[in-house]
Write a structure and sequence with these properties.
The complex is a heterodimer of chains A (112) and B (111).
Chain A (H helix, E strand, L loop, with lengths): L4 E3 L2 E4 L5 E6 L6 E7 L6 E7 L2 E5 L6 E5 L5 E5 L8 E8 L7 E2 L3 E5 L1
Parallel strand pairs in A: 2-11
Antiparallel strand pairs in A: 1-3, 3-8, 4-5, 4-9, 5-6, 7-8, 9-10, 9-11
Chain B lengths: L3 E3 L2 E5 L4 E6 L4 E9 L6 E7 L5 E3 L2 E6 L4 E6 L8 E9 L7 E2 L3 E6 L1
Parallel strand pairs in B: 2-11
Antiparallel strand pairs in B: 1-3, 3-8, 4-5, 4-9, 6-7, 7-8, 9-10, 9-11
The chains are: A mainly beta (112), B mainly beta (111).
């Protein structure tokens, strides 16, 4: 049973560029949440997708957007990258009627 | 709204016990505990639900005091593999699975 997978593992971009991160949820899970984790901090909630719609959103600007596909996989898009966007981006999947969230290995984004 | 974890860091010798606390100013629906090793994703340990029982497996257990909106993680007879940063993630009563994480507690277990 494959767990949560994310791609790419690492990414280096320059300010102003755009980036797309991808996530495949754990088998049987239909809900995907995205988190940003700065160095030395706990994960911060960006948004959550269920049934291809954004269900909840944290305090992140509109530069952060996402999408969920019919197979439950998800993308996180960040436009007009800033230096402060450098972080580990984590995807967590869960089941609509469950409580546990399982995290993927993350994508390390560096903005130069 | 961010839960407060204490202590910020703790250093143990193998076999010693530790308690990590997580408290919130908001009424909580659930508390989730994760352990994260350097450069890795957080690993789910356990979840405590409002009205639920104390959880635990082997030498790691946790409790949830609903009146005080506090949770504690108990690590007994610690092993080297317990080293890492422990995060509590809280779900506000009536929320929708959005987790708000504390800043973490760094646990180091030495031989």
């Amino acid at each position: 049973d494959a767990g949560v997978t994310q791609s790419p593992t690492h990414l280096i971009k320059t300010r102003g560029q755009q980036v797309t991160l991808r996530c495949s949820p754990k088998s049987g899970h239909d809900t995907v949440s995205w988190y940003q984790q700065a160095l030395g901090q706990g994960p911060q909630f960006i948004f959550q997708y269920y049934e291809e719609e954004e269900r909840q959103r944290g305090n992140f600007p509109d530069r952060f957007s996402g999408h969920q596909f019919p197979n439950y996989s998800s993308e996180l898009n960040v436009n007009a990258l800033l230096l402060g966007d450098s972080a580990l981006y984590l995807c967590a999947s869960s089941w609509e009627f469950g409580n546990e969230q399982f995290f993927g290995p993350g994508t390390r984004l560096t903005v130069l | 709204q961010q839960p407060v974890q204490s202590p910020q860091a703790v250093i143990l010798r193998e076999g010693e016990d530790a308690v990590i606390n997580c408290s919130s100013s908001k009424a909580l629906y659930s508390v989730h505990w994760y352990r994260q090793k350097h450069g890795e994703a957080p690993v789910f340990l356990m979840i405590l639900l409002k009205g639920g029982e104390q959880k635990g497996h082997e030498k790691i257990s946790a409790s949830f005091n609903e009146k005080k909106q506090q949770s504690s993680l108990y690590l007994t007879a610690s092993q080297l593999s317990y080293s890492g940063t422990y995060f509590c993630g809280t779900e506000i009563q009536g929320g929708s699975e959005k987790l708000v994480f504390g800043k973490g507690t760094k646990l180091t277990v030495n031989p």
